[in-house]
Amino acid sequence: MDLGGDPIAVAATVQALWRYPVNSLLGERVQTLSVTADGVVGDRGHLLVDLASGEIAAPENVARWRPALQLDARIANGEVLVSSKSWSMRVDDSELDIALADHFGFRCAIRRAGSRLCLSTGDFVLRPRYEASPLHIVFGKSLHDLSELLPEAVIDVRRFRPNIVVETTADESDWIDRQIALGSYLGKVVEKTKRCGMTMIAQTGLPEDPEILRAIVKRRQRCFGVYADVASAGVIAIGDPISVSQSHRV
After folding, report:
1. All domains of the chain, ordered by start, with CATH?
2. Which residues lie across from 82 on neighbouring strands?
3. How far is it, in rounded angstroms, from Cα 74 to Cα 13?
4. Which of left, alpha, beta for 4 (phi over 0: left; psi -120 to 50: alpha)?
5. Angle at 29 between CA 25 and CA 33, to 5 degrees
6. Pair type for strands 135-139 and 164-167
7. N or C, where is the chain less crowded by C-beta within 10 Å?
């Protein structure tokens, strides 16, 4: 993959890949990711929404949405499935709204982003609460460094919800404004990822731990991971070498 004429350094490999079919729910570990200009195919294409107010789920800020992190979302045979410990349903199953109401304790639903929701207060189009970057990358080195800083904490990549986990000895700041190539994808690392309360709240298999966010704020200026844009769509697979341009490019 051509990175614009600069010499290329193979600096890392793809260690793990993740996709999150429903925003705010747990995601799935996958073998490959297809990336377009809009981001990872199948990633965050559905939203969890309150059927009374139209509020989009925000478990990092609002306690009543935190049970979202006890639900899994995955794609099987082209369909999005949502699962708890006791049930598994397609997102278009009419019984899912009932199961979600029982799980959360209020009426809510999962709907496709961009679809129209009709409520007593009016009709509106469902939009994500924030504009997500096409790719979110977390470094294995950063996870290791945080584990050493907080030896009593359970540091798990699931707390940070990346699309790509890379194995490298580089620091995140080394990649800012550099072009990268993974598989047939080409893009540029554009900025560090500011962290929120999602890193500390409990989820399946992980306890709540506010010290994690405190440490990231204090020791890492609230940043953990990086965002990347898309210059050329492609497919990324586990084990792919990652090429990084030798110099920063605007």
Report:
1. 8-40+131-245 (2.40.33.20), 46-125 (no CATH)
2. 73, 89
3. 24
4. left
5. 105
6. parallel
7. C
Cα torsion angle, 39, 45, 48, 52, sign: positive
Structure tokens at 138: 């977390």
Name the band, by pLDDT with cuts 50, 70 and 90, for residue 122.
Answer: confident
Q: Distance (Å, rounded) from C-alpha 36 to C-alpha 39?
A: 5
Q: Is residue 51 within 8 Å of residue 110, measured between CB atoms? A: no
The answer, as to whether pTM is greater than 0.85, is yes
All residues at 6 or more sequence positions from 170 whose CB lies less than 8 Å from its CB, including other chains = 11, 12, 139, 141, 244
Average pLDDT for residues 52-70, to the nearest whole number?
Answer: 96
Is residue 109 classed exposed, middle or buried when 0-12, 13-18 and 19+ CB atoms within 10 A define those classes? middle
- Please answer whether residues 13 and 37 qualify as being in contact, where contact means their C-beta atoms are separated by less than 8 angstroms: no
